[in-house]
Amino acid sequence: MDFKLLAAAVLLAAAPAYAETGGMEEASNAAAEIVDMRSTLAKSFIEPDKEITPETFKNVCGRVGARVKELSDTRGMKIRHATEQFRNPANKATAEEAAIIKRFAEDRDLKEILDEVDLDGTRYYRATRPIFVEEACLACHGKADARPAFIKEKYPDDRAFGYRAGDIRGIITVMVPENTEGEKR
Length: 185
Ligand code: HEC
Fold this sequence. Notes:
The chain is of the alpha+beta class. The protein has a single domain, classed as Beta-Lactamase (2-Layer Sandwich). Helices cover 45% and strands 18% of the residues. It is built from 8 helices and 4 strands. A 4-stranded antiparallel beta sheet has the order 1-4-3-2, with helices on both faces. The longest helix has 24 residues, at 22-45. It starts with a helix and ends in an 8-residue tail after the last strand. It binds heme C.
């Protein structure tokens, strides 16, 4: 039997609870959606030799931020980006998150981590996915000098540059409260 198929079968057998729970699936889908969305937007808005303006940003990571806010407001999700080389200091990885980033960096076959956590008395389904750097991201996350001026000005403590395509950029974590599962959110 193909090893990958066997591994998938073992995984599925080990996680019947997740297969049945809509909340976990919702968390997983939202994490995938945000990662794909940023990648698609970057590919469509970033063109070689085209100047990057604040408007361009609004169309890429800015639109992602708006979608994150929308999901948080309307679906009760908690969504967080974490990275060691942050641009927005709010996204600075904790020690726990840094360890997860390292795990994804070292194991490129690991696509997602699904688990459950307690936070302030609420139990959540949690989906965590890695975010990788692509060519289109380099316009704003590549060489230090190549960063658009508005980024240098707005983020004086910026560390989110110097990346190369294929590098791990960080993680996204989506949490869905368990007790509201099945309810209309
Ligand atoms: C047009 C410029 C631009 C492009 C292109 C861009 N980003 Fe960003 N990115 C930013 C800015 C500005 C922020 C900070 C947003 C904020 O204040 O929260 C950011 C923040 C992030 C964050 C949140 C973590 C942090 O450092 O604060 C991640 C993750 C991220 N970008 C990944 C990517 C990836 C992956 C791509 C390519 C698919 C990409 N970005 C393309 C400008 C860009």
